[in-house]
Amino acid sequence: MLRQTLTYIAALALLLGAPTAARGQEPVPATIEAVELAEGGPLNLLYLWRFHPGDDPRWADPAFDDSDWELVEPLLLPRGRPRDGWPGTGWFRRHLRIEPALRGKPLSLRIETPGATTVFLDGVPVMSAAASGLRAGGRLEGGAWREVALSPGREYVLAVRHTLSLAERHARSRDLGFLLTIEPRDAEALRLAA
Length: 194
Prior knowledge:
By secondary structure, this protein is α+β, with helices and mostly antiparallel strands. The protein has a single domain, classed as Galactose-binding domain-like (Jelly Rolls, Sandwich), CATH 2.60.120.260. It has four helices and 13 strands. The protein has helices at 2-17, 34-38, 166-171, 187-193; strands at 30-32, 43-44, 49-53, 70-72, 89-98, 107-112, 116-121, 124-130, 133-134, 140-141, 143-148, 155-163, 179-184. Strands 1, 3, 4, 5, 7, 8 and 12 form a seven-stranded mixed β-sheet that branches. The protein has a four-stranded antiparallel β-sheet with strand order 2-13-6-11. A two-stranded antiparallel sheet has the order 9-10. A hairpin with a 2-residue loop joins strand 7 and strand 8 (124-130).
């Protein structure tokens, strides 16, 4: 009995003293690796993201507890939309970790969106984009990019506020979501280093 009690106390002490990730995030952050970026072209962040309908600026805070948020794909294709459909405005959150091999390599975030979208990195707005019209194939175009300094070995939280009006939703029954990518500023230098 004493041995069981001591084991329990030791386990509890380890749990209380151990650093923890923000509650509610995926068990393992999406790791951005140099080899993925060196293979040519941007890395599409198509992982499952946490989603909540509505609008609250507190949801950009990296420490916010989103444990009860639904997991969805950010493109919001028909098979990956929220359970209750698209409400017009919603927030998405995802943890990222940057591989040490990317130390000192400037990266860019790029977003394409059919609506109005703002991207936050660790609670700070880093870019906004809005659809600007139709391009070939009838898809809405609109986007922005921003160079960011991401430190390797560190965890980041991306939060995205995405709005698509009722008229845009009816006109764009397939293109409801957004595409966020990470790409190196100098892909050739990254290929040589990988």
